Amino acid sequence: xxxxxxxxxxxxxxxxxxxxxxxxxxxxxxxxxxxxxxxxxxxxxxxxxxxxxxxxxxxxxxxxxxxxxxxxxxxxxxxxxxxxxxxxxxxxxxxxxxxxxxxxxxxxxxxxxxxxxxxxxxxxxxxxxxxxxxxxxxxxxxxxxxxxxxxxxxxxxxxxxxxxxxxxxxxxxxxxxxxxxxxxxxxxxxxxxxxxxxxxxxxxxxxxxxxxxxxxxxxxxxxxxxxxxxxxxxxxxxxxxxxxxxxxxxxxxxxxxxxxxxxxxxxxxxxxxxxxxxxxxxxxxxxxxxxxxxxxxxxxxxxxxxxxxxxxxxxxxxxxxxxxxxxxxxxxxxxxxxxxxxxxxxxxxxxxxxxxxxxxxxxxxxxxxxxxxxxxxxxxxxxxxxxxxxxxxxxxxxxxxxxxxxxxxxxxxxx
Length: 415
Hints:
Layout: H1 2-32, H2 35-52, H3 69-103, H4 111-136, H5 140-165, H6 169-192, H7 203-212, H8 215-242, H9 244-283, H10 287-320, H11 325-344, H12 349-353, H13 357-380, H14 384-410
Helix pairs in contact: 1-5, 1-9, 2-4, 2-8, 2-9, 3-4, 3-7, 4-6, 5-6, 8-9, 8-13, 9-10, 9-11, 10-11, 11-14, 13-14
């Protein structure tokens, strides 16, 4: 247990520090860019994030299944091949998508936005493969260093290029450059530690393993896609229903509250996957590590989200300026949801361990339908506050169901 907590502390500590770097940059960004400009960049980042779900076919999660290191290496190469193939397809698709958006959707964005999206998709996919391999080898210190390096570059470049060019497209450019640096660092670590070798590359073996672990793209991928779509849906739908300025306000809340809490809990999930898989293989359950992880996460989340619930508007107005007070109101409405997501979402890997990917998929599908309905109700009544409140309530209730089923899976329950 001590090593487990130490690994979580190492990964979460690095993630927390990297997020503090980004948080420090946010007050500068809110004075460089308008809510509308932040909304536009958030829209394209959301599209890239949603597409990136497909970048590895979710075979990166299969790294934890085989005991044979040659299998793991060929699964790794398989994710790289999938990523490059899909990137090429997206580059071809960007041309008709640009013209369709110009003439039928009346989007006034130049083609550069559309060409940068597949590039970011490629880099996100490579990062997923690299991090999964580092995680499997328990190299958490390197993962933390990489995240700190990436966010430091991202924060500095976003501010610097924003001041020089005053164009929100450089927010995307900053993301691309920072991901290039992160991936270069991760690749260096993998090669330097002799974690993989091109000598193990075998196309026939890759095909065999892709077929063997087909449940990951068949069940885990759709569920993951729906999860990411649910997370990014507010940006897309708020842009559609209420305009880029509103989605820009929401993106500030997500940047300051949602992303830091999600990334810290995701860092915990990376350690939890390895430990829970190990415990499950020995005891045929992972109840102990499940409950201890939940208690730690819940206690960590209690204070910051309680403060936000009561003082959100005042905090946001003081830090980012009075024109961003609405972001504080959104933060109030979303605080309970963020707290539950922080505490529960990392534990969902028990569903995969127990081969209950089908439940995860249907849960994500129902969640997506309900969230879209909630956002539409607010649009119908011409109230963005209604949209955010209903969104938060529905998401919170769904996470309670998710907690129940992931806990049952930790007990060794299988469908």
